[in-house]
Amino acid sequence: MKSFLKTSVACIAALTLTTFSAAAENVLKWGAQRDVVSLDPYSYGDTFTIAVLNHVYEGLVRYDDNLQIAPALATSWEVVSPTLWRFHLRQGVTFHDGAPFTADDVLASLTRVSDPASPLRGNLPAYQSAKKIDDFTVEVTTTPNYPLLLNDLTNIVIFDKEWLVANKAEAPTDVGKGVEGYATAHANGTGPFKVVSRKPDAETVFEVNKAWWDKPRHNIDKIVFTPITSAATRVAALLSGEIDFTNSAPLQDIPRLQASSDIKVLASNELRTVFFVFNRTDKTIASDITDKNPMNDIKVRQAMYQSIDIDALQKKVMRGLSRNTGSMVAPAIPGYVEALDSRLPYDPDAAKKLLAEAGYPNGFTFSFVCENDGYVNEEEICQAVSSMWARVGLKATLDVAPTSLQTAKFESGKFDVGILGWANEPMIDSYSILVQVVHSKTGTSGVFNWGGWKYPEVDALIDAAGKELDREKRLDFQSEALTKIKDDVAFLPLHQQPMAWATGSKVESLVQLTDNKPRHWLTKMK
Amino acid sequence: MSVEQTVKMPAAPRFARLRTFLDGDLVYGFLRTPSAVISAIVLLVIALTAIAAPLLSPQDPYDLTQLYLDKAELPPIWTAEGQAPYLLGTDVQGRDIFSAILYGSRISLMIGFASVIVSVMIGIVVGLTSGYVGGRIDNLLMRIGDLVLSIPTLLVAILVSAIFRELLPVSMRDAFTPVILTTSIAITSWVQYARIVRASTMVEARKEYVLAARILRLPPLRIMLTHILPNVMTAVLVTATLNLGLAILAEATLSFLGVGMPVTQPSLGTLIRIGNQYFFSGSWWVVLFPALQLSLIILAVNLLGDWLRDALNPKLR
To answer: Which domain of life is it from (chain A) (predicted)?
Structure first.
């Protein structure tokens, strides 16, 4: 009896303690539209995944609240010669497991990300090699006169070398190819939060890193990250207070959310341009035309373009919140010129005529690969466009599935028409889309050249821009490259997509920048 | 020479049989049960409108060329912004909800019926063999059944349909989805029938008329099919009717989860999934009407099944 009393008293004490500490804790419950593809930030060039993992891992430099490059793990840097940069590293930084941060960690990370098997190597196109000078100085060799190294490095986060070696995680993982490793499910960075538990597609918990080198501007103790794929469920969760924040408020529900006094909606246009890409190899994937690939005919691509009623799409599917565009990059992206923004007019009759001229008066069938959790209202866009195409005879076989399934199809070129959105992050420069998407697949270039398109002239312009330190000249090259692909209808741009975040009553303030990346180390809770 | 052939049929057997049937207990009981009569009428109306969908609906929801975005999200016709001919409004793609419901019910009923028929056939074959042959074969077949039952139905169905989907080339996937769904539902639901048939077969197999047939040296297949099967069919029919509702629901669930009918050929479950996304934005009609139709079908089937179970069970009379 006595021992029973003792245990019950202890239990009650423990219970009160936990409730107390829970009440004192600031827990941010984050409901996202999908899970991160991996805990390894090098496993896929996915802005959302990297944005979430930026809470855990940091790079040498980062963007501040005004999207200006600011020191992070490097305190200062200088350009020694056109091919050589020297970085001075921050001292006294530790990883989440307590290991100190040194030059060796930078070298190990750069080696890992530039590995030929790394899907993120395209994010660091000019990197040649790196050398340790002392424990807190690193020299990086690049291709001559490369202008955007710092922009690139905002995305290249630093791993702990000892941790990589101890867990045999030196080799990069790749979500697209299904290559996994220790870093897929474990994380050890220097960032403001550390991962305490992870259940893929269910829940990932981040706890504040008390030993963070920077002075925290947030007051969060714990972030509970839950993917909620169904838009309606996400809204219901927000309305009921089950989540405090979502980075993807469904466009159709914004009026409903705004009507609730507790909920704040932050909506504006983001940098991301959404466009269709074409399979440009000799063979179609799933079409009734098998002897050649109709997508290689500019008339067919133009017909596809001109049969899309972008205004109806903007008004109905995007709820008037997207920005229709003819350009592959948003106006805020250097390299954009206004002339690029004009669209080919919506003209289904002209489209039919073009198809007839190309030799397909009755159209043809083809596979149209789309995701249902990637871009804003993506599934609805693809459905609506399929019916617009059907009216001119282009019969799309719509293949809609989650990103986790479709990525592999895109990377292996198993599509006739696909969808891609490019935000030019982290570079915030049109060189990003040019070198990673437009350029043919060579070396670190063209990592996202899914359909095998090839424009030697454009490649030459991009290569020239990559060696040009004079900003004006470089942007001229880039605009010219963008104009050339526009003239050939190499891609089919739709719009710059809207972004809509929403917060519940417990969130006091947060920072939303045009790159659509949540930065909760700047979030204040009540 | 079998026993049946020696019995002479009366003249004009068809009408006489109908007469006996109509005067029988079953019909009498049926007409005395309002819930059964109403369910039967509702089901009949739904089935007929579903079959006649191409004639009744103002739009072919499967024909993408007929979907116009400028007609998207129109409310039902009796509200201020409603437009003819969109009786129950349209969804976000400009799909007429009324037409989509008719076409969707068609798919839902078709898959429901087909999967019940397939699983009943598997169940009968397995159950008869098991019950009549017995021994090792009985053991083997029943353990396979136990194995199937030990995994949740929906999980197996999701797995099977996902595997089939990935195996098929993209261009054939949409056309074969109903077949895939039927198979995946049937694969998981035959065990119930097999167990019922096996149990009744074991009882029937010991009765004198089977013994007589055996003494006459009739082949086992003939004994199973013409002597035993007619006597175990009642129980199977009742279960099948009750399970029809479950099968339709299983299809709707799979489509709701996104592994069923594609968005371009929506079944009721797909329509509910699409509509669910617009529930908070005020477009209630996109989800409400397909959901009502589904509930109506399931309710009617279940009430009818319940009545049939009571009517055919001598103990409950």
So the answer is: Bacteria
Secondary structure (H, E, C), A55-97 = CCCCECEEECCCCCEEECCEEEEEEEECCEEEEEECCCCECCC
Domains of chain B as residue ranges with CATH: 95-316 (1.10.3720.10)
Chain B closest-CA separation from residue A480 CA (Å): 35
**How far apart, in whole angstroms, are the C-alpha atoms of residue A306 and residue A264?**
38
Which of these, A314, A269, A203, lies nearest to A423 by C-alpha position? Answer: A269
What's phi and psi for A237, nearest 5 deg?
-65, -40
Range A241-263 average pLDDT: 92
- In Å, what is the CA distance from A375 to each residue of A46, A74, A238, A410? 12, 33, 20, 15
**Cβ proximity of A328 and A422 under 8 Å:** yes
Is-contact A422 A190, C-beta < 8 A? no
Q: Give which of B205, B206, B222 is closest to B2, Cα–Cα.
A: B222
**Residue given tokens 């086992």 in the structure block:** B220
Average pLDDT over residues A21-45: 86
Cα A192 to Cα A522: distance, rounded to the nearest angstrom:
10
CA distances from A218 to A27, A41, B225 (A): 12, 23, 76
* Closest alpha carbon to A507 in A269, A184, A262, A200: A262
State mean pLDDT over A244-258. Answer: 92
Confidence band of B80 (pLDDT split at 50, 70, 90): confident
Question: What tokens were used for B114?
Answer: 């087909």
Q: Would you mind telling me the total number of residues written for chain B in this entry? A: 317
Alpha-carbon distances of B117 from A507, B193, B194, rounded to whole Å: 56, 11, 13
Task: Enumerate the residues of chain B whose CB falls inside 8 A of the CB of residue A372.
Answer: 258
Task: Encode B59-69: b = buried (16+ Cβ within 10 Å), e = exposed.
Answer: bbbbebebbbb
Q: Which residue type does B233 have?
A: M
> Residue A124 — φ and ψ, nearest 5°?
-135, 60
Side-chain half-sphere exposure of A514, counting CA atoms within 13 A: 18
Contact B69 A236 (CB under 8 A): no
Rounded to 5°, the CA angle B111-B114-B116 comes to 105
- Domains belonging to chain A, first-starting first, are 29-226+504-525 (3.40.190.10), 270-498 (3.10.105.10)
Mutate to test the interface with A, among B64, B261, B278, B284 (most CBs of A within 10 A): B64
- Chain B residue closest to A416 (CA)? B170
Residue of A nearest to B169 (CA): A286
For residue A367, give the nearest of B63, B70, B170 by CB distance: B170
Confirm if A298 and A304 have CB atoms less than 8 A apart.
no
Q: How far is CA A335 from CA A332, A439, A456, A472, in A?
A: 9, 16, 20, 9
| Cβ proximity of A415 and A285 under 8 Å | yes
Question: Is the CB of A387 less than 8 angstroms away from the CB of B73?
Answer: no
Burial class of B112 by CB neighbour count within 10 A (0 to 12, 13 to 18, 19+): buried
Tens of pLDDT, residue by residue over A230-241, are 888 999 999 999
* Class of residue A264 by CB neighbours under 10 A (exposed 0-12, middle 13-18, buried 19+): middle
**Are the beta carbons of A319 and A280 closer than 8 angstroms?**
no
**pLDDT per residue over A174-215, tens digit each?**
988 888 999 999 999 999 999 999 999 999 999 999 999 999
